[in-house]
Design a protein that fits this description.
The protein folds into 2 domains: about 1-40 and about 100-230, no CATH class; about 45-100, no CATH class. Helix content is about 25%, strand content about 35%. The chain has helices at about 10-25, 65-75, 160-190, 220-225; strands spanning about 1-5, 25-30, 40-55, 60-65, 85-100, 105-110, 115, 125-130, 135-140, 145-155, 200-205, 205, 215.
């Protein structure tokens, strides 16, 4: 299921949104990475650079990026400048900036019905339910727009009735979908981001193992959106 909130957000604002979501217990992360909660929001950044200065008569004439180049240059200049040598110049720049999202998948510390998998260790990030259903949540900011996407997987050995599929893939995860929508939308609708979270585009369907596809009934879409109100 995809919920499209509108236009793509600029990069700086998306970085700020990344921090705002983390404050609500929602973390953008790569599909297999652990969440480092210290790497969200306005963070300290330290950048270290090393160059090599070519020194003649106690003055740095120019710099090069590689020590091997510095050695070749000083060896070549030795006959003209006996005092020619090179120095290693290390520079550390400390700044602050809004941390960039590490991916598009969402991980959570908010209370959910399902069990969040692999939050603090490497692994396939998802939410697992007692019936074996798995839900993957994503927040994608690209040319299509700002899209909250849910992917629910329920693997069974035998063919299942449509009603059973809808129960496992809708009712099981419905409450959590509502909680996640509510958390994400609480940030998107902030004045500094300015999204209208009531006027959205919805794309929802079921893909069966036989590769057949059926669209979600209007009542399912309505249930998913109304699930926000109960959380």
């Amino acid at each position: 299921m995809k919920i499209n909130y509108g236009d793509k957000m600029n990069e700086l604002d998306f970085n700020k949104l990344n921090g705002a979501l983390a404050e609500k217990g929602v973390y953008l992360i790569d599909s297999f990475s652990r969440v480092d909660t210290d790497n969200y929001g306005y963070v300290h950044v330290e950048e270290n650079t090393t160059v090599y200065g070519i020194v003649i008569e106690n003055e740095v004439q120019f710099t090069v990026d590689w020590e091997s180049d510095a050695k070749i240059i000083t060896d070549g200049l030795y006959n003209l400048h006996k005092d020619c040598h090179y120095n290693e110049i290390n520079t550390t720049v400390k700044t602050q900036k809004w941390a960039e999202p590490e991916g598009t998948q969402l991980q959570f510390t908010i209370p959910l019905d399902g069990e969040v998998q692999n939050f603090d260790c490497w692994g396939n990030n998802h939410i697992l339910y007692e019936n074996g259903a798995k839900m993957y949540a994503f927040l994608e900011n690209d040319y299509i727009g700002m899209v909250l996407r849910f992917r629910v997987v329920w693997e069974q050995e035998n063919v299942q009735r449509k009603e059973a599929i809808e129960d496992a893939m809708v009712q099981t995860v419905l409450n959590d979908m509502g909680k996640i929508q509510k958390a994400v939308e609480s940030r998107l609708k902030l004045k500094k981001f300015g999204y209208n979270v009531e006027e959205v585009g919805i794309d929802c369907h079921f893909d069966a193992k036989t590769e057949s596809r059926s669209e979600c009934a209007p009542d399912i879409i309505k249930q998913v959106r109304e699930a926000r109100k109960g959380n």
